[in-house]
């Protein structure tokens, strides 16, 4: 079985290399933002979405434009990959998985990618350069090799290298090697099925009655975040002190994030290795954490209270838990079932009676039909477990009948959609991306008269080309150099 794995190492750049990395990240950001502008402008003129291939054809012109010679210093692949990222962002938007692509900001999305693993481009595992990697235009880059999982000295990754990303984080630059690794087909674990009810008072409650608390941000830590933010606001814009305050804030955020993600990794690994089936409820985080502010005419109620609740919801990283379970269950041979969440907290796990009166308080559950009493979260986890088992059973049944009929129909789960399924949808929509009808069903269909369509396109192209450079004010172009 082939799985995708990323191996991350901290890079130890020399001063020149760090300067180069900042410039390349700046160039990639410029191309991404200009590409976004080009797509917006192109759509407003022609009513058509632009494809990745069409956008890359403008790269040469962009490099030859006066004031933009610095783009020639950056590796060509890096610039192409920025447009590829934009294309993926649009595909994800069309598939309904994310919002409309937004411009990238300096200091927030600094990074670029080398897509070609050819030894002429990326040099790795050279006996003369142990613990180093050769990147185009960079030369040999040293790596802080603190990867205890790969016990062999000097080995940076395993499997077939696909691409190398260079990303800036709060504490420095990181290299991420994306690889395809062949692993033995895993044997399904024998431990009993388990499911989790996810909440705020208890981060995760298992169907076996175990309460798990993730290290979420405490009230005192929120206070510290507030102080660090205040420190940034008190510094003059563009000053060195402000940069320093920003760095302190980013490092603290990174610490809090890593602490939580580490706990989620340990949790998901343990259960994916031990249990044959894991059940989760399909939580619509976006809907649950929607703002209550309302409009000027109709302001919302209890806005501050809801804001606090939203913060607690987002603090739990439910999507990250789901993402990790999704790929780890594949690695370790277990199964993940994401089931619909409706009424899971009001249903009795013993007699299936659904009533709001069942739930006496946040923690107490007492069934009005059969008198079953339990902690409300444990009961909900039990309900989710039975739903997950039922969903898994119907899936295997339908796959059996499918193989008998040898039909090509894809049979999905009863209710909730798994991440894998959403990705499949995404890859489907990727193939048909670029058609205007997908982006906007009411968009004007391309005219049948060829001549008029062509003239429109030509008019659009001129404008589109102008939009390519619109990201930078004309007066600044000569002095402009990305950082
Ligand atoms: Zn009952």
Model description:
By secondary structure, the protein is an alpha+beta fold. The chain folds into two domains: 2-184, no CATH class; 194-293 and 306-399, no CATH class. The chain contains 13 helices and 14 strands. The protein has helices spanning 15-46, 52-56, 59-64, 76-94, 219-234, 240-274, 285-288, 303-315, 318-332, 376-405, 419-431, 436-439, 450-468, and strands spanning 2-12, 111-114, 123-126, 129-135, 139-144, 160-169, 172-182, 194-198, 204-206, 211-212, 277-282, 335-340, 364-366, 373-375. It has a seven-stranded antiparallel beta sheet with strand order 2-6-7-1-5-4-3. It has a five-stranded mixed beta sheet with strand order 10-9-8-11-12, with helices on both faces. Strands 13-14 form a two-stranded antiparallel ribbon. A hairpin with a 2-residue loop joins strand 6 (160-169) and strand 7 (172-182). The two termini are 42 Å apart. The structure holds zinc ion (ZN). Zinc ion (ZN) is lined by residues 348, 350-351, 353, 367, 369-370, 372.
Annotate the secondary structure layout.
Blueprint: E1 2-12, H1 15-46, H2 52-56, H3 59-64, H4 76-94, E2 111-114, E3 123-126, E4 129-135, E5 139-144, E6 160-169, E7 172-182, E8 194-198, E9 204-206, E10 211-212, H5 219-234, H6 240-274, E11 277-282, H7 285-288, H8 303-315, H9 318-332, E12 335-340, E13 364-366, E14 373-375, H10 376-405, H11 419-431, H12 436-439, H13 450-468
Parallel strand pairs: 8-11, 11-12
Antiparallel strand pairs: 1-5, 1-7, 2-6, 3-4, 4-5, 6-7, 8-9, 9-10, 13-14
The structure holds zinc ion.
């Amino acid at each position: 079985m082939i799985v995708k794995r990323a191996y991350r190492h901290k890079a130890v750049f020399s001063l020149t290399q760090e300067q180069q990395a900042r410039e390349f990240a700046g160039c990639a950001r410029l191309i991404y933002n200009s590409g976004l502008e080009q797509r917006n402008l192109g759509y407003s003129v022609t009513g058509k979405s632009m494809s990745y291939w069409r956008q890359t054809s403008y790269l040469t012109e962009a490099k030859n434009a006066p004031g933009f010679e610095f783009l020639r210093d950056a590796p060509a692949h890096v610039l192409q990959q920025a447009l590829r990222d934009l294309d993926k962002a649009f595909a994800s938007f069309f598939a309904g998985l994310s919002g409309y692509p937004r411009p990238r900001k300096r200091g927030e999305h600094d990074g670029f990618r080398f897509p070609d693993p050819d030894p002429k481009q990326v040099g790795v595992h050279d006996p003369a350069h142990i613990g180093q990697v050769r990147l185009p235009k960079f030369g040999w880059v040293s790596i802080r090799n603190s990867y205890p999982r790969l016990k062999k000295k000097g080995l940076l990754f395993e499997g077939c290298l696909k691409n190398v990303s260079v990303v800036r984080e709060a504490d420095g630059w990181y290299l991420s090697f994306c690889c395809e690794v062949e692993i033995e087909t895993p044997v399904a674990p024998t431990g009993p099925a388990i499911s989790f009810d996810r909440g705020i008072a208890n981060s995760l409650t298992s169907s076996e009655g175990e309460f798990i608390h993730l290290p979420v941000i405490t009230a005192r830590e929120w206070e510290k975040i507030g102080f660090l933010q205040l420190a940034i606001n008190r510094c003059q814009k563009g000053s060195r002190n402000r940069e320093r305050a920003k760095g302190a804030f980013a490092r603290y955020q990174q610490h809090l994030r890593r602490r939580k993600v580490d706990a989620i990794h340990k949790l998901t690994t343990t259960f994916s290795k031990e249990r044959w089936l894991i059940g989760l409820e399909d939580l619509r985080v976006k809907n649950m954490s929607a703002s209550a502010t309302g409009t000027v005419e109709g302001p919302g109620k209890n806005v501050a209270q809801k804001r606090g609740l939203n913060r607690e919801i987002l603090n739990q990283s439910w999507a990250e838990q789901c993402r990790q379970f999704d790929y780890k269950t594949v690695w370790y041979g277990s199964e993940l079932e994401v089931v619909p969440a409706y009424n899971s907290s009001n249903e009795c796990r013993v007699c299936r009676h659904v009533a709001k009166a069942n739930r006496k308080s946040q923690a107490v559950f007492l069934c009005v039909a059969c008198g079953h009493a339990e902690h409300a979260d444990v009961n909900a986890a039990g309900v989710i477990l039975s739903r997950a088992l039922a969903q898994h059973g119907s899936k295997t049944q339908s796959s059996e009948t499918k193989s008998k009929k040898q039909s090509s129909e894809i049979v999905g789960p009863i209710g909730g959609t798994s991440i894998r399924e959403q990705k499949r949808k995404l890859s489907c929509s990727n193939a048909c991306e670029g058609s205007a009808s997908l982006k906007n069903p009411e968009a004007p269909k391309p005219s049948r008269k060829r001549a008029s369509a062509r003239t429109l396109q030509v008019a659009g192209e001129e404008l589109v080309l102008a939009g390519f450079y619109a990201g930078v004010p004309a007066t600044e172009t000569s002095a402009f150099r990305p950082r």
